Amino acid sequence: MADVLQQVVSGIASGGVYALLALALVLIYRSTGVLNFAQGEMAMFSTFICWELLDRGVPYWGAFFLTLAISFVGGVLIERLVIHSVSRSQALTVVTVTIGLLILLNGAAAWIWKGEQRTLENPFPSDTFEVGGVVIAAQDLGIIGVSLAIVLVLWAFFQRTRVGLALRAAALNPESSRLHGVRVSRMLALGWGLAAVLGAVAGILVAPTQGSFDQNLMLPVLIFAFAAAVLGGLDSPIGAVVGGVVLGVVLNLVGAYIDFFADLRLPAALLLILGILLLRPNGLFGRSVVRRV
Amino acid sequence: MTAGRFALRVIGFALFVAIVVYLPFRISDFRASEFALIGIYFIAILGLNVLTGYTGVISLGHGAFMALGAYTTAILVADHGMRDLWTIPLAGLLAAAAGAAFGLPALRLSGPYLALATFGIAVATPIVIKKFDGLTGGSGGINLFEAEGITGLPEFIVTLPGGKVLSFNDWLYYLTWTFALALFAIAWAIHHSRFGRSLRAIRDNEIAASASGIWLASHKTLAFSISAFYAGVAGSLLAISAFSVQPGAFPVDRSIALLVGLAVGGLGSLAPLAAGAAFLVFLPQWAQDISKAPGVPAVIYGAVLIALMILLPLGVGGLLRRIMGPLTSRLYPRS
Lengths: 293, 335
Fold this sequence. Notes:
heterodimer, A: mainly alpha, two-stranded antiparallel ribbon, 11 helices, B: mainly alpha
């Protein structure tokens, strides 16, 4: 039993990272209706920026928050310069642009940082401690704690501030919000900025757990984040968090206890999600859309 | 369709065929192999267009159907001694069956959920292929170099009466483009059939289409199945032209590339999709020619793709429609 609990705890930790990236995807999907395929690469790029700052001697938390600020600006700029100019086009065009961004950012990181393996400093101690027979790594707890804190801050921002309210209004009904004086276009840019920040946190948390990383750090995480977002419902932030954590735990348990799936963790998880989607086509927490003709 | 418009289309198609037939006489052997690859992508993109262009469903998983087609051909040729040409339609049919089997339940999902479900299929494909190594040869794949049933051999050379030497790559070129042109004609027929109009009605307004008596489930499933057929044929041709199949040949990137080709060619158009296929083959090479430094070709590729989408949001097809519209609208009355 303790063994199972241990798998669950480390599953929650990796699930927390999926949840952050899934939350970023949901943020953009809700406001612009776009699946952002570049989300993972934006996060990877932020991680490299953090590495660069640390390499130049900036203290850890200084580098951390500076990276978040740079990422925010980067996200806003991507929306303003690229996404905005195709926002009126068909879905396929916008999706293709985000695929172009994915390729561009991946290449740019390989170019700037020479495609070499880098090691990101771990902010958490490498201790482990035992609670009732379950060995818990401080790093896992740290990741869970940071993810939780980010989710709470974001929740407070959306529910308790005027800007958060405007963001939600712009996503829900752009026409009416515009009539009420919300600058919808600015809200979209703000949404991209916030998504970039979420991605940056996910990247900075996940990079030390991998030992070393290069420009392909976030591709697998992006796939899990997509799966998590779909599982929870693409328009539901709570769904993204729950989906991420559930996915992390299930992947860990399936990989650890069912031998046949040991190297089929990913397809098994995707199959599971497909099954859930067939029962609930809008994810666990998504709303079904009522359409009028 | 008016008679004048139909005649114009027939002339256009005849011109297209003439160019395809004549091209190997003008280009080098190496270029012929590249154009064969363009033909293969063209087929897959035409198929994807039946799904995405007409029903509005974005699929990120058509690389999986290509893989299915490729492995069908490879297994039939290598293990069962079948002639490679006969496996091409079989590969298409098997992919079509798989497309129907996947499409029937999955089409319950709405746009983005379906896109990500198909994305899941694409992600899982190479892993699953490696897992069932008894059938698929694992990560090494299947080699067809020594197989009996291969029709075109690398030493294949025929001298035509005009003095033109038909090389192995020319053979591949004509093989793929024969299928490409036939499937192009079928796509055109679908476009102008009652079925094609029903599909476009679904894309434009699902509820109105259903109220007009279109059975959504059957139409969407059939569209999915047809597009999978195209992908299966393309995969089969890929296996024949490469003499081998490996799981590494079908990464997620392949599925994404098809979608990129479709967007560049122009969603809902037909002949311009060949431009999308050419983009997929030539742009990476062109980017490599500019600089081989790590990452730089990808930067160029991504930047060109983004710029192209901003400048031509409807792809090459959209551009052509804009140019040709004023020119041809006087030939026949707009219906």
